Amino acid sequence: MKKTKMLKKNYEFRNVLSKGKYYSGKTIEAFIKDNYKNNNFLGLAISVKTAKAVKRNKIKRLIRENYRLLEMQIQSGKSIVFLWKKKADIKNANFENIKKDMNTIFDKANIKNKEI
Predict the structure, then answer these.
(1) 55: which of 31, 51, 107, 115 fits an S-S bond (Cβ 3.0–4.6 Å)?
(2) Do residues 4 and 42 make contact, with C-beta atoms less than 8 angstroms apart?
(3) HSE of 55 in the Cβ direction (CA atoms, 13 Å)?
(4) Which pLDDT tens digit goes with each residue over 64-84?
């Protein structure tokens, strides 16, 4: 099983957000950048203006779980930051919507492995 590490430092987020390519779904946005390492790095940023802490944490859990399920299909050496769209309604934060958006984003970015 592939192990993805989390982005934690401010400079790591800024690097991906400023130099990464932007991809958008209906509810989430992603910035993807090559990191030239054997591991993927995942970052989540949900704005305080989106909702209170409980709902923000629920969104983060849903994004992490969907990523975990798709992790084996993604090429190594990528840094990915997911953002919740400011205009997206918090009621659309369910497992299926996020899964569709992630598949759409990964297909647009062309980072899925070909053999799977």
Answers:
(1) 51
(2) yes
(3) 13
(4) 999 999 999 999 999 999 999
